[in-house]
Each structure stands twice: as C-alpha cells, then as structure tokens.
Description:
16-stranded mixed β-sheet, Leucine-rich repeat, LRR (right-handed beta-alpha superhelix), 21% strand
Amino acid sequence: MGILFFFYSFVCLLLIVSESFSSSSVMMHHVCSPTEAFALLHFKQSFQISGQPRCWYETDMQYVRYVDIPKTKSWNESRDCCSWDGVTCDMLTGHVIGLDLSCSLLNGTIHPNSTLFQLHHLRTLNLAYNEFYSSSMLHNIGGLRNLRHLNLSDSFFEGEIPTEISYLSNLVSLEFYCYGCELDERTFETILQNFTNLEVLSLYGVNISSPIPVNISSSLRYVDLGHTNLRGVLTESFFLLPGLERLYLRANDLLKGVLPKIHPSNTLLELDISFTGISGELPDSIGTFSSLNFLNMFSCQLSGHIPDSVGNLTQIRYLDFSKNHFTGHIPSTISKLKQLTYLGLSSNSFTGEIPDIFSNLQELSYLYLRNNGFIGSFPSTIVSLTQLQRLDLSYNSLNGTIPSSVLSLPLLSSLSLQHNKFSGLANEFKTNPTLEYLDLSHNQLSLKVLLLSSCELKDFPHLTNVKKLLVLDISNNKIRGQIPNWFSGIRWDSLWYLNLSHNSLTGHLQQFHFHNLEYLDLQFNFLQGPIPSSICNMNNLQVLHLSHNNFSNSIPSCLGSMSNLTVLDLRRNNFTGSLPPLCAKSTSLSTIVLNDNHFEGTLPVSLLNCSGLEVLDMRNNAINDTFPAWLGTLQQLQVLILKSNVFHGPISTCQSTFCFPKLRIFDLSRNEFSGSLPAKIFGNFKAMIKLDGEDTGEIKYMKPSLRSMNPSYEDSVSLVIKGQDIELERISTIMTTIDLSSNHFEGVIPKTLKDLSSLWLLNLSHNNLIGHIPMELGQLNTLEALDLSWNRLTGKIPQELTRLTFLEKLNLSQNVLVGPIPHGPQFNTFENDSYGGNLDLCGPPLSKQCGTSDLSHVPQPLESEDESYFFSGFTWESVVIGYSCGLVVGTVVWSFMFKYRRPEWFVEFFEGIYPKKMRRSMKRAQRQRT
Length: 930
Ligand SMILES: *[C@@H]1O[C@H](CO)[C@@H](O)[C@H](O)[C@H]1NC(C)=O
Ligand SMILES: *[C@@H]1O[C@H](CO)[C@@H](O)[C@H](O)[C@H]1NC(C)=O
Ligand SMILES: *[C@@H]1O[C@H](CO)[C@@H](O)[C@H](O)[C@H]1NC(C)=O
Ligand SMILES: *[C@@H]1O[C@H](CO)[C@@H](O)[C@H](O)[C@H]1NC(C)=O
Ligand SMILES: *[C@@H]1O[C@H](CO)[C@@H](O)[C@H](O)[C@H]1NC(C)=O
Ligand SMILES: *[C@@H]1O[C@H](CO)[C@@H](O)[C@H](O)[C@H]1NC(C)=O
C-alpha cells in the first residue's frame, strides 16, 4: 500500500509541477533566489549518491522496472535552480516551493543545522525512499509552516517524531511509512484533530501506542495506521467521516472492540482490520458498505453468523473472513457478489454443506474454505469457475467423488483437498499444465489413475499403496537415474497403462512384473542394455514403445510370438542382430517401426502372417536382402520404408492379383537396387489412384486400432519431402509418395506412373534412367514435387508437364535434356537450379536464349552432390524435432498447435510442406478457432 500510495502522491506532485510551469511560460530567466539555490547545493553536498535502488513497480505481471533517479546530480550553479530536477519554484516570487527527492539514491545524514530548513516557502517536501541512516528526526521541520505535502516514508529515519510536526497544520498529506520511529500520543491527536485539511495520513509502522482519538478531522480520505500499536477500543470516529475511502488498521492486535454500526452514507472503498483484536458479531449494517470493494478481516476475533446482508456488498472484489470464530452456514447471498476475485472463509467453525453459490462468481480466482466443519459433497458449481487459480477445501468432512473437471480448470495452479472424506476420483482425469500443487492426502481414495505428466518432477515419485493402480503416467518430467528397485519389485496386478517416457531414466531394465500391462511407453530416455525376455510374459501387451533410448543387443525372439502386440516401435536405439520372427504366432502387429538401429540379415518371412500390417519402417539399418515383393500380399500395408539399407537386385512384381493395394508411402531410396523400373508394379498401387476420404475433404491420420482406445498411439515416419528430411508426427492418409532415388535403376521411366493420379511426391533422382520424360506424367494432377535429377534423361521437357498445376518443386538438373523450357503457370516459378547441368536447355529462367547454338552459356553443373539442395542451409529435421520436444506429448503436433499460439516461423515453415489439401483444411480449422 505504501508504494502504491507513494506513486499516487508522485502523480500529484507532477501535476503541481506542470501547473506551475504552464502558468508562467512567459517569464523565464533567473528566478531562483540565490540563498535558496545555496541552501539546496549545501543540502546536496551532505549526501552521497550511493543508496540502494528502492523504487520499483510492476509494469505488468512480470516486469519490474527501477525508477530511481539521482536527481541531485544535475544540480549546479550554472543553471537556474528552478530548472533542477526535483525542484519546483513559484514563478512569481521565485521561491522554491517544491522539493521532490524521492527515490534519488541519497545516502547520508540530515543534521538539525541542515540548510533544508532554510527553504521556508516549501509547500511540498518528498524525501521518501532514500537512506538517511542515523538522521534523528527532523526537529526543525516545524519551521516549514507552508508545507502542504510531506512524505518521509521508508528512508530509515530513526527515533521520536518531533512534536514540532504539530505546527504543520496546513498539511494535506502526511506520509511516514516507517519502522523504528515513534509518535507521542499528543502529537498523534493533534494531527488527527487539528489538521483540518488533512486528506492523506499514512503512519504505517510508526510506533504510536495510543488509542484512536474520538473526534477526527473530517477531511480525511485515506488513513493507513497499520502496524502502529494502536490500543484501546475501535470507536465510530472513522466510520462517521463523510469522505473516508480507505482505512487500514491492520496488524494492531491491541486494538479491541466491535465493528461499529455503519452509517448508510459511508463512502468506504477499502477496509482492512486484519490481525486486530476486534471481536463480536458483524453488524447487519455491514451491507450498507455498498461501495466497498476490499474487506480484509483475516485473523480477528469475530464470531457469530455472517449476516445475509453481506450479499449487498455488490462491488466487493476481495473478501476475507478467514481465521475468526464464525459459525453457522455460509450465507447463500454471497452468490450475488459477482465481482469477487478473492473469497477467504478458512479456519472458522462454519458447518453444513457448502452452498452451490459459485456459478455467478465468474471472476473468482482464489477460494479458501479450508479448516471448517463443512460436510456433504464437492460443490459442483466450483467447476464452472474458469478463472480459478487456487482452491483449498482441505480439513473439512466433504465426501463423495471429486469431479474430474476441477483438475482441468484452465488456470488452476494449486488444489488442496487433503483431510476430507472423499471416496473417489472421477475415473479418468487429466491435470492441466498450470497445476503446480495437488494434495489429495488423507482421504478415502482408492487411487486408480495417477497422471503426473509434465509436472517438472525431478525424482521418481515414491508411490505407496498403489497395487490397485490401473493407469500410471509420469511422462514428460525431469526424472533422472534408474527405475528404482521397489518399482520393479512390486507385483502390479491391475496396471494396464504405464508411461515413463520423456524423462532422463538410465540403466538397464529389470525383470517385469506387469502381468496385465497393455501399453508400455519408455520412449525418450537413456535406458540401455538388452530388453529382458520376461517382457514376453506380458500376454496382453499391445503397444511396446521403446524408441529414442540406447537399448542394444538383439531383441528377444519371443517378441515375435506376443499374441496381442499391435505396435512395436523400437526406432533410434542401438539394436543389433537379425530380426526376430515377427508375427510367428499371431497376426495382430499393425505397426513395426525399427528404423535407425543396426539390424542386419534379411526380412523375416514370418511377416507374411502379419495380415493387419499397415506400417513397416526399416530405414537406416543394414538389412541385406532382395526386394520383398511377397509383402505385396499384405492387403493393409500402407507405408513401406526400406531406405538406406543394403537391398539389392531388381524390383520384382508379386504374383497375386492384388499387390500392395493400399500402399501410399513407398520409399526404397539409398539402396543398391538395380534393373529397370517395372511398369507393372506401379499399376498395382491402387491406393495412389483413388484415395480414401478424398471427397469428404476431411483429413484423417493413421493410427493402429487398439482394443483399449484411450491412450492412443499414432503412426509417425520420416520422409524426404520436397528435398528435406522430415519427421512426421502423424501420417495423413492423403500423403502419397514414391521415392526410388539413389539406387542403380536403369531403363526408361514407365508411362504407367501416369495412373497414380493421387501421387503427391515422386523422386527418381540419382539413378541411371534414360530416354525421354514421358509426357504422360502431365496427368499426375496432384503432384507437388517431381525430382528426376542426376539421371541420363534426354530429349525435350514435355510441354504437358505445364498441366501440373500443383507442382511446387521441380528438379530436372544433371540430365541431358535439350530444347526450350516450357512456359506455364507453375513453370514460371521455377528457377535456374531446377535445370542446371543439362546439355542444351534454353529459354527463361536460363540466360541462354533459344534459337542460337552458342554453347558458352551452358550452365555449369551444380556443386552440391546432395539431393537436398533445394533448401540447402536449413535442416528441417532438427527444426521440427526441436519444436516438438517442447510438446506435452510428442504425437499431437497439430492439435497442439491449434490450441496454443504457434510461432510464426513454424506456421510458414509447415505451410509449404504439407499437401495443399491439408493446408487448406488446416487453415479452415484455424479460421474456425479464431
Ligand atoms: C552509505 O554511506 C555510508 C557512509 O559513507 C557507507 O558506509 C555505506 O556503504 C553507504 N551505503 C551504500 C548502500 O552505499
Ligand atoms: C552541522 O552539524 C553537524 C553535526 O552536529 C556538524 O558535523 C556539521 O559541521 C554542522 N554543519 C554546519 C554547516 O554547521
Ligand atoms: C488543537 O485544537 C484544539 C481545539 O481547537 C486546541 O485546544 C489545541 O490547542 C490545538 N492543539 C494544538 C497543538 O494546536
Ligand atoms: C441488504 O440485504 C438484506 C438481506 O439480504 C435485504 O433484506 C436488504 O433489502 C438489503 N438492503 C439493501 C439496501 O439492498
Ligand atoms: C456424505 O455425507 C452426508 C452428510 O454427512 C451423508 O448424508 C451422505 O450420505 C454422505 N454421502 C456419501 C456418498 O457418503
Ligand atoms: C491376448 O491374446 C490372447 C490370445 O490371442 C487372448 O486370449 C487374450 O484375451 C488377449 N488379451 C486381451 C487383453 O485381449
């Protein structure tokens, strides 16, 4: 309050200053009287400018700005003293009438002989927030009879406030926020009674040790007598003042008496009698404080019922009755206090049910009902308080279940429900990211679900009594070290969902005792060593997600026989050896993601049994095999990625009628494949001809169908998209790509590719393809990137390619193409590097003109051997991963990004990457949300 008020008076002073300047702008020049200038300079010299900065304020919730200014630094004889910082003159007489040296970093002592006291014309003196250690009180202050405003707050004055201050009877404001000073009773009385103009009185912290006088100057608007050792009985005196707006009497425990009857004409806005000895019942007339917005009665001796008339305080924003002896029910009229942001009723003896009064209190941020005798159920309207930040219902006798929605209140940061009789949590709940404190101890809960994701936990929580737990999620914390032995030792009979992902767990996995586990997620840790073979005892396991760890050795071969296993995600570890016989005894695997390991040998033929297989990602291993045409019989297979292995030989076609009918992502790049591109195999890719969901306009994502749906796994892969390696968090069902780049394919480009009418990306670069670019490729009307670079293609670029109206990236460089470059809508956007290193192409964008045979302008081959020179210098993978690391859960990029504000660069960056169709629907979704 002191600081706040200081700023109020600071503003007042500014007004005075500007007024005196504006009224006298005509007559400037040396108006300062030399004696006063001398007095000021002398005063200045008695200090050092070495005090600690004392003045700050919060510009908004976080930023603190210092406003200490060493005003006396600018004082010197060469300038008129009226222009010195902090000095105000009367422009008619030239006298110094205002001196504001608040927050001026002054350090020193004001002696009784100080020249300050020669400034007899001063009307305003503000020395607040400096360091005047061991300055005894300003005994000569009584000489400054003209003072209207005096502020000596918080500047380390010491000792008795001199009685001479009683001479300053013209004061309008007197501020003396100060510890360690004393004021005698007579002077206190004189100030309150004889200063007839006094509007602002702040003596916070001054030791007064007197009763409040009976008759009080009626001009008072603001009174702060907090912490002043007031004694005696609180009388009506303050409450009868016609214009009093703020009264702070807090922290005067010797102040007794009852709250007086309140007169209907009172004008109080704020009243603080907290930590006083005021007792008795609240008068019914409390409701007549109709303009009150702040009422603090914390820790008094009040008793009885809270009168219904409290509902008449309709302007109230802060109401605290905590720590008294109130009894009875909470009046339901509180529901009328729509402005309330703070309601404290803790530590009384209230009884009965908590009335359901909260649905109207939409501004409420703090609700404290702790430590009373409340019974009954959780007041259901609390869950409608969307502004609620802190809720404390602890130490009551509430029963029934805790509604799940309270935990997802968007701003809630602290929830205390301990020491009640709650018997359950609504079955499924998720804490929101703002929750920092949750105490449910000492209830009758039989905990079934414990979700502590993203809680900044540093240690593995020590859980007791958790044998009945069904769901445990402590992912996305900062837990270090090994999984503790007690955890591995428990027989977890009920647990079906365990998520320890995104922590910093180290060490080896112990034997498991999770007999009924269905979902195990340990991704993004530093776990190492082999997977224990006891993992195969978890008969019900459906999802095994161990990616992004340091696991090594070969994987236990029994893994191939786990009958319910649907998702096996072991990507980015150090596994070695050959693959186990996956689907040896079952058919349920639908997602196998083993990329970025050191697997070798051949693909196990048992995969033929995986009739539900949708995703097989073997990228970046050392598999040495021929093309698995036999996988073509898997009718559900949508994603086949064999990139960067040692596959070799020609691409054979399979024998069955429906071969790879659902394949949409087909990546054989960076292998040793050879032979021609068989026309027939492309004809089989039915899914690239007509797409699911193409007509509905709805974007779907691939996810395996798990029996127990709730904690879901979404398929994700890495792809080279338009020249960049991207880790896709989700696979949309409209992404269709063929990437056969960096092999040894030869022969011509088959015309049958034209049938793949939904193809989005096609990359045949870095092979030995010859012949012409088939003009039929112009029929691929959803194609957005076409890369045929680094082959030996000849002839002209077919004019038909200009029909590819979605084409955004084209790379035909490093071939033997000739003739004019076609013109067309998209073609006009491609630049030189789309065509570099060809024999004899001409026309824009190349500088070589058509119709001449001047070979001196043939573009030089590009320097980069890398296929990704479209965007060289920017590594997409690192950027995308870098962003998604901050996510709560790594699989929900889009929903996350729509929910929260997305960084601009991220939006722009992605908007060029996804298929146009998706971009449209993402934009639509975004528009709907804004
Ligand atoms: C204030 O001045 C005194 C005496 O010169 C000195 O000891 C003290 O350190 C100064 N305070 C600060 C904060 O510089
Ligand atoms: C003022 O009083 C102080 C302490 O009594 C003394 O040290 C100082 O010299 C005096 N200054 C003047 C200008 O007399
Ligand atoms: C204060 O006012 C009362 C009544 O007017 C008067 O008797 C008393 O002398 C005054 N006190 C001072 C210190 O001026
Ligand atoms: C104050 O509240 C009481 C009880 O709720 C009610 O009867 C009375 O009319 C109210 N008075 C005013 C002035 O609103
Ligand atoms: C909760 O407590 C109330 C009052 O003590 C009682 O009437 C009610 O039956 C209890 N409800 C439950 C679910 O225990
Ligand atoms: C797991 O598979 C076995 C055998 O196929 C089946 O009997 C069992 O019910 C499955 N477990 C669950 C939880 O469905």
